[in-house]
Amino acid sequence: MMQNKIQLVVVLAGILSKASCDLYRFVLIEEPKTWPEAQSYCREKYTDLVTVQSDADRAKLKEAANAVNFSSVAWIGFYKDPWLWSYQNTIISYAKWGNQKPDLLKTHKACATVKRNGQWVDANCTEGRYYFCQTDKQDKLQDKFKYTEKTMNWYDAQTYCRSHEIDLATVTDDTENAFLAEVLNSKNDWDAWIGLSRIPWQWSDNSSVSWSSVKWESGQPDNVNGTGECATADTDGLMADHICSTQQPFYCRENRKIQRVRFTVKSDRSLDESAVMKAIEKKMKQILSGQDVIIRYNITWSVQPDGKIFQQQETRENKDNTQDTPTACDELGPMKR
Ligand SMILES: [Ca+2]
């Protein structure tokens, strides 16, 4: 069931304290889960796995860890998609990565080439390369692939192959791979695109990756065995790549929504503040509990510099006294994610 947490800030006038503008927090779940399980858990119970790419995020992470005396590493929402074949978006089962393994970091999308020694290397998809298309003739190895010695980026090569043949080449075993290497050798060419691509690193909540703001532990990501597909963070927010199927504690992000409500209370003279507050809170609770979704809420009153909640306003006909006073939250702006 969808659970929303709404923090109601009742403002009559004046300025909200910055603390009431804390629109999200991180929660550490200590029960170890695999990365996909952790993602499902956070999305169900909270908002998502956490995104950690600012000092503010790292401070929240530390706060969440300290809250439960945690000092180890835990999953965060950073992950890599699996390599997919261009033809029918199938997940890679056969691979021939060289010693460097696919290790491109700071790119939106990575694409694979086959070298003339038969090893695969990941490259930036926008670079120019010759390429192998896959034809519709699947009987003989010699007819399966079409090699074109024309430099194109991976996307253009894909478009070309899809319109003139079937798609960019899918390589399914050593025999096919050796054949492609042989073609490159016979033409004395170095490498060529095959139909393999992936999105290297992305955030679970779809935040765009800010490479200058993410921080890895030294020596990470090391992509051990080419299988480091999900990231953990230590309590300082330094990241490392791990195999997604290992079980780790994890950090969830909980979004909070602040809704400001302004009341005007009409009174002859003396106002019993606490009685009015109680009456308003009672009414708010009635409204909030009558919603279709479960809403966890806090009602916070904004205390003014004079120690009072309510401010006296002169009432004059036609005077526009509903205009909002700028608040600290307004300055912070609406929540981005
Ligand atoms: Ca690692």
TrEMBL record:
Keyword Signal included in the entry's annotation: yes
Keyword set includes Signal: yes
InterPro entries the record matches: C-type_lectin-like, C-type_lectin-like/link_sf, CTDL_fold
C-type lectin domain boundaries: 24-134, 145-253
Signal peptide: 1-21
Domain of life per record: Eukaryota
Protein name per the record: C-type lectin domain-containing protein
Species annotation: Cyprinus carpio carpio
